[in-house]
Backbone:
């Protein structure tokens, strides 16, 4: 029986970027649970346990950093990678202070995203935990 691909949750309000990230994640071997808002994610979380949350810092509605705070307040150990098209040092510092495991500049290449996700996803360890 084939092991399902690990799931990465993406919260991004720009529909073109959201779709593109979904395609990139699939090409990298991941399933993607795509959400266009923090409210959508909170109302209908993914059915499978994700390996990480890729979160737009400037998502409309409830800002991404507010969602990062809410996830942490729930006691979740879900690794969060904050992303932004604007490499704002204050936002980056806030995200890191609140516990994000990485920061992805959307103008970076796909390899940077793969490296960030790989830093939180360890397939051999994940399989052992699921046994």
Residues:
């Amino acid at each position: 029986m084939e092991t399902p691909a690990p799931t990465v949750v993406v919260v991004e309000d720009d529909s073109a970027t959201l779709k593109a990230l979904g395609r990139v994640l699939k090409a990298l071997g991941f399933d993607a649970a795509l959400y266009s808002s923090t409210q959508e994610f909170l109302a209908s979380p993914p059915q499978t346990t994700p390996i990480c949350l890729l979160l737009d810092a400037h998502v409309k509605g409830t800002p991404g950093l507010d969602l990062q705070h809410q996830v942490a307040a729930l006691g979740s150990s879900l690794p969060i990678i904050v992303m932004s098209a604007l490499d704002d040092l204050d936002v980056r510092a806030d995200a890191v202070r609140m516990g994000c495991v990485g920061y992805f500049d959307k103008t970076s290449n796909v390899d940077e995203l793969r490296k960030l996700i790989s830093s939180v996803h360890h397939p051999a360890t994940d399989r052992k935990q699921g046994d």
